[in-house]
């Protein structure tokens, strides 16, 4: 298996130029991380039907969602893969009211449309082929 | 108390469209992130219902199954466990991953054998999981 690849069902975005979502995730307080982990697990297990959620964005048909807890935000994509599998990729983690520098982009912690169009757009473009 | 995740729910389900792009097998397992929290707080496993050791074992199982071209239900049938159990294993659910014996049965069902390196990895994962479970047993 090539470096940077995994067979895991829940993964994080990693890119040498566009940043690391896993490093962003690790900034969550434990309570927040626990809740986001459980949320992703529910999505991947199919206990929570992501088709019933409102998309935050989409990239070439891949739905991208936004989840929030208090001021914390996580953006993730869900793919329906072959063999009936589901895969979740965490694309961004941050906090409202805090500037986030993420791989050459700076999110001001407020403008969600800018987050979607700039950072998420760039990361999705690099991730989904 | 578990924090509540806020997501926006649609009034009716959206049309299920086929994506025209894929991440393939790209990505770093979130097990590495979970490991970060496990190192900070032994409650992380009990609270998330997931374990980093289990997630690593789950990725091995998922990889073998996908290589064999089986949906979860087919692998479950061949191994003699429920689909829910296969799903749980692949997601890294529970404080412990699959037993080594079950991993070997899964490999066999997928037409594979666990190579010496995989055996060592599997044994190490079981040790990790057992150690994690032992350190969190008070929470169950």
Given the helix and strand composition of chain B, which structural class is it?
mainly alpha
Helix content of chain A: 25-40%
The gyration radius over C-alpha positions of chain A equals: 14 Å
Query: Looking across the biggest beta sheet of chain A, what order are the strands in?
Result: 1-7-6-5-4
Average pLDDT metric of chain B = 88
CATH class of chain A equals Alpha Beta
Total number of beta strands of chain A: 9
Count of helix runs of chain B: 7
> CATH homologous superfamily of chain B - what is it?
lambda repressor-like DNA-binding domains
Distance between the termini of chain A: 18 Å
Overall mean pLDDT of chain A: 93
CATH superfamily of chain A: RelE-like
What would the keywords be for this entry?
heterodimer, A: 129 residues, alpha+beta, YaeB-like fold, 5-stranded mixed β-sheet, 3 helices, 29% helix, 33% strand, globular, B: 140 residues, mainly alpha, 434 Repressor (Amino-terminal Domain), 7 helices
Protein model, in words:
With 129 residues, chain A is of the alpha+beta class. Chain A has one domain: RelE-like (YaeB-like fold). Chain A contains 3 helices and 9 strands; from the N terminus they run E-E-E-H-H-E-E-E-E-E-E-H. In chain A, strands 1-7-6-5-4 form a 5-stranded mixed beta sheet. In chain A, strands 2-3 form a two-stranded antiparallel sheet. In chain A, strand 8 (100-102) and strand 9 (105-107) form a beta hairpin. Chain A starts with 9 loop residues before the first strand and ends with a helix. The mean pLDDT of chain A is 93. Chain B has one domain (31-133): 434 Repressor (Amino-terminal Domain) (Orthogonal Bundle). Chain B contains 7 helices and 1 strand. Chain B has helices at 31-40, 43-48, 52-68, 72-79, 83-91, 100-109, 116-136, and one strand at residues 28-29. The two termini of chain B are 15 Å apart. The model of chain B has no long low-confidence stretch (mean pLDDT 88). Chains A and B meet through strand 1, helix 2, strand 5, strand 6 and strand 7 of A and strand 1, helix 1, helix 2, helix 3 and helix 5 of B. Strand 1 (10-12) of chain A pairs antiparallel with strand 1 (28-29) of chain B.
